[in-house]
Write a structure and sequence with these properties.
The chain is mostly beta strands and 162 residues long. It contains 1 helix and 11 strands; from the N terminus they run H-E-E-E-E-E-E-E-E-E-E-E. Strand 1 (24-28) and strand 2 (33-38) form a beta hairpin.
């Protein structure tokens, strides 16, 4: 039996797991492996807002690995300059630069931001989550295109503090 998992099914599965007390979950198909683990040590998310109260309080780590055919490499992110702070995705979701289609983006390269200012929206399971920066500075790079799916911990933009 061949098992396929589309984006919506993955979101429903993660939502069901986040509402359960399951700590580890593994699902394998012919061409993929999905592992979910909770309550494991995590790397701090720099300059990211805390997840909303509607999200699971425990971080969820998702690993997907192809075992057949060529592996899809993760998005290539240029090395960070030491004077910049990475703004990373605190969850899996879809990245949106503006509050609604046709509206101006929250920020552009060169925009001055203040601590607590919204810089983008991450849509996860039909919930729009505003991502705020935790420092004042200038947006130097925006690394993700509008409407692009992002992974947990993926660098979205870089800010020069000051």
């Amino acid at each position: 039996m061949t098992m396929q998992l589309d984006h919506d099914q993955l979101h429903r599965l993660l939502e069901a797991l986040s509402e359960s007390d399951i700590q580890e979950f593994r699902l394998e198909g012919d061409d993929f492996r999905l592992e979910v683990r909770r309550n494991l040590p995590t790397i701090a998310v720099a300059a990211a807002a805390p997840a909303p109260a509607t999200a699971s309080a425990a971080p969820i780590e998702v690993l997907q690995e192809s075992t057949a055919g060529p592996a899809t490499p993760p998005p290539v992110v240029p090395a960070s300059r030491s004077d910049l702070v990475d703004v990373t995705a605190p969850m899996v979701g879809t990245f949106y630069r503006a509050p609604a289609p046709g509206e101006d983006p929250f920020v552009e390269v060169g925009t001055r931001v203040n601590s607590g200012q919204t810089v983008c929206i991450l849509e996860a399971m039909k919930l729009m989550n505003e991502l705020e920066v935790e420092l004042a500075g200038e947006v130097i790079e925006i690394l993700v295109d509008n409407g692009t799916p992002v992974e947990f911990g993926q660098v979205l933009m870089r800010v020069k503090p000051g």
